[in-house]
Design goal:
alpha/beta; Chitinase A, domain 3; two-stranded parallel sheet; 3 helices
Amino acid sequence: MKEKETILTLEGLKKLEEELEQYKTVKRREVAGRIKQAIEFGDISENSEYEDAKNEQAFIEGRILMLEKMLRNAKIIDDENIGTEEVFVGSTVILKDLEYGDEVEYTIVGSIEADPDKNRISNESPVGKAILGKSKSSVVEVTVPAGVLKYQIMDIIGR
């Protein structure tokens, strides 16, 4: 089975690499020190410090494996060459809600970098899927739990 591609901007790639380095160096050392200290307390069978440290160690090792897999399967989006003719991952778009007239600006990113609070939405989200490949002035319908939303693409902003 083919592993899922991780779509990242160069900024997102850098953040994942930094996080991986942090886990491999600092966090591993910290938890190893906690385990060593807990063992020094004596009987580990009823030692909650030891159990907590072992659980944290398992989490850290799992996160390292996950980060390595994401980086191994990374597809980097060169957002310097994003055009303004149609919406791609890396595009910034201005959408107008045709029901209420509100305009909102979104940057389309891979799911790893999605952050709705910063108007960064995933290419896999309902809105992201609906606008990918569309051009300026296109009207899209997005089915969400509350019903159907209609947006018009007002602008596609390049870099």
